[in-house]
Automatic annotation (TrEMBL):
Alphabetized UniProt keyword annotations: Signal
Signal peptide annotation: 1-24
Entry keyword Signal: yes
Name used for this protein in its record: Uncharacterized protein
């Protein structure tokens, strides 16, 4: 996706809320996987992980 990371998280939140209506396992795992994948590239999240290691 060619959007800034801040807006990408907003898109993931919208996708999560939309697909939460249909709680199919495969759908939610896909959304959560994409979110966690992008979260691992966030600098603030990496700093958080380093602080708690």
């Amino acid at each position: 996706m060619f959007v800034e990371s801040c807006w990408r998280m907003v898109v993931y939140l919208i996708m999560f809320l939309y697909f939460h209506q249909d709680v199919a396992k495969n759908t939610m795992q896909g959304v959560n996987g994409m979110f966690l994948s992008d979260l691992s590239y966030e600098v603030s999240f990496q700093e958080f992980l380093q602080k708690w290691k």
